[in-house]
Design brief:
It is a single chain. The protein is mainly alpha-helical. It has one domain. Helix content is 73%, strand content 0%. It has 12 helices and no strands. Helix 1 crosses helix 5, helix 2 runs antiparallel to helix 4 and helix 4 runs antiparallel to helix 7.
Length: 318
């Protein structure tokens, strides 16, 4: 699988289906334990892959501090992101997560780049940001005020928004983490660091779980989340970010809501209220406009990876 956009497309299908799968696990397990199982299993799988498939000389050739940077990225993109994500799933439907996280992540990425003056504030981008933020407000109003809404759903959506912020920062950090490091090694370091912290948080809830009474479907979902949606997907995502840059990679996340909506409605029977549906459409349109500025970045020639000294999020890597 050599095409970066093919790798990213597979990643988005895995991630899109992971929202409904994660919701199924959270219905039987505390959200802290569900997060630990997903990324603890992923860490073990990646360690095995690194041992059997990794370049044994990669660690010696890696730049000074590369492992530390990857581990810090894992604190943000694995621990912080999934702590908020699984907590939100215990309060709100997976459909909400599948809209807010993948759609707001590019919006927040674009907003950061504009605030730090790393990209120009074109009229299309500004209009898209305003439209996207308006859609997010409408979506939140629908979550808290519609017939299908509730205060807990609103709180869950707020946690999903926090997850989106963590993922935007994780994506921006991607070029710095990947500089001079094999993606498999960087992904393994990041996942292991995040999994260790998730283990500390989940430890008090583990003894309360009745493991013998869990349905087989829960374990099948855990296996899929750990191996497919975490280990494989994160590795493919890191490879895609390294090839096309975080901005173009984050745009691929607009395909996640489609996959998630299909899974959530077909397998979980979830649905949007009319206000939330309208907000989702406005949010999606604004996010696409803000991130693309009316252009399709994958029609442009991908820029080569920036040198190791380039700061994270530098426009040349985006």
């Amino acid at each position: 699988m050599h095409s970066p956009y093919l790798m990213l497309s597979v990643t988005m299908v895995l991630w899109g289906s992971a929202f409904a799968s994660s919701k199924s696990v959270v219905e039987y397990l505390p959200h802290e334990v569900a997060a630990l199982l997903r990324f603890g299993g992923a860490a073990l799988a990646l360690l095995a892959a690194l041992y059997f498939l990794g370049d044994r000389r990669g660690a010696a050739r890696a730049p000074r501090g590369a492992g530390r940077r990857a581990a810090l990225a894992g604190v943000l993109g694995v621990f912080a992101y999934n702590s908020a994500f699984f907590w939100g799933l215990s309060l709100a439907p997976s459909l909400d997560a599948g809209i807010l996280i993948p759609v707001m992540s590019p919006v927040l990425t674009s907003l950061f780049l504009l605030v730090t003056k790393r990209e120009r504030a074109s009229w299309a981008r500004l209009a898209g940001l305003v439209l996207g933020l308006t859609g997010a407000v409408i979506f939140f109003l629908g979550a808290g005020g519609s017939a299908q809404g509730s205060p807990s759903r609103l709180a869950g959506d707020a946690l999903f928004l926090l997850s989106a912020g963590c993922w935007a920062a994780y994506t921006l950090a991607g070029p710095r983490v990947l500089a001079g490091v094999d993606p498999l090694r960087a992904t393994t370091y990041a996942t292991c660091a995040g999994a260790v912290l998730l283990g500390f948080v989940a430890a008090p809830a583990v003894p309360d779980v009745r493991w013998s009474e869990l349905p087989s479907g829960v374990w099948l979902n855990v296996a899929f989340l750990a191996l497919g949606a975490a280990a494989v997907a994160n590795l493919l995502y890191y490879r895609g970010v390294g090839a096309v840059g975080p901005a173009s990679a984050s745009l691929m996340m607009f395909t996640v809501p489609v996959v998630n909506t299909l899974c959530g409605t077909l397998f979980l029977g979830e649905s949007f209220g009319p206000v939330q549906a309208a907000g989702a459409v406005v949010l999606l349109c604004g996010a696409v406009l803000a991130a693309t500025q009316g252009r399709l970045p994958w029609r442009r020639t991908a820029a080569p990876a920036a040198p190791a000294a380039a700061p994270a999020g530098q426009p040349a890597r985006r």
